[in-house]
Design a protein that fits this description.
Thioredoxin_ResA/DsbE_sf; 9 strands; about 25% strand; signal; Glutaredoxin; Redoxin; Peroxiredoxin
Length: about 160
C-alpha cells in the first residue's frame, strides 16, 4: 500500500497541473548521447561549461506544449550568459510531429529525439512529461522537476548557477 502512495500523490498533483519538485541532490548527469533533429549528436560531456536545462517532453503532452513558450523565454533571457537548453522528445513521439512542432514554434534551442528510450532510461527512467533537469557547469544535475517548473524559482536557480565559477 505504501508503495502506491507517492505515485498516486504525484499523479494527482500532475493532473492538477502542479509542478512537483523532486530533489535528487547533486549527482553527475548520466552519460548519454543525444541525437539531434539535424542528425548530429551531442553527449552529456558537451553540456559541461554551461548551465543547461534538459527538458523531456512530448508533442502530445498538454503541459509540455503549454510551458514551451516559458522554456523559450528562459532560453532567450540567459543564452548569452552561458545557459543552454536541450529538449528531448520521448521515444513514443512520432519524429514528424517533433520536427513540425520545432519548426512551427521556432524552437531556438537544440531538440533531440530519444528514438529508443535509452536517454530517458539513463536519466532516471523518465516516464512522466514534462520532466526537467537543471545541470550545472560541472555537468551535475542540481534539480529535477516533474511537471511545469515554477519559472520564477527556476530563474533564481539559473542565476545562482551562472554566477558560480
Amino acid at each position: 500500500m505504501k508503495k502506491l502512495v507517492l505515485p498516486a500523490a504525484l499523479a494527482i498533483a500532475l493532473a492538477a497541473g502542479v509542478g512537483v519538485y523532486l530533489s535528487t541532490g547533486v549527482s553527475a548527469a548520466p552519460a548519454s548521447t543525444f541525437v539531434l533533429l539535424d542528425g548530429s549528436k551531442k553527449s552529456t560531456d558537451d553540456l559541461k561549461g554551461k548551465v543547461t536545462l534538459v527538458n523531456f517532453w512530448a508533442t502530445s503532452c498538454v503541459t509540455c506544449v503549454a510551458e514551451m513558450p516559458k522554456v523559450i523565454a528562459t532560453y532567450d533571457k540567459y543564452k548569452d550568459r552561458g545557459y543552454d537548453t536541450l529538449a528531448v522528445a520521448m521515444s513514443y513521439d512520432p519524429p514528424s510531429y517533433v520536427v513540425n512542432f520545432t519548426q512551427t514554434r521556432k524552437l531556438p534551442f537544440k531538440v533531440a529525439i530519444d528514438n529508443t528510450g535509452t536517454v530517458a532510461q539513463a536519466w532516471g527512467d523518465v516516464q512522466l512529461t514534462p520532466t526537467t533537469y537543471i545541470v550545472n557547469k560541472r555537468g551535475e544535475i542540481v534539480k529535477r522537476y516533474v511537471g511545469e517548473p515554477d519559472f520564477a524559482e527556476l530563474h533564481r536557480l539559473i542565476e545562482k548557477l551562472l554566477a558560480e565559477a
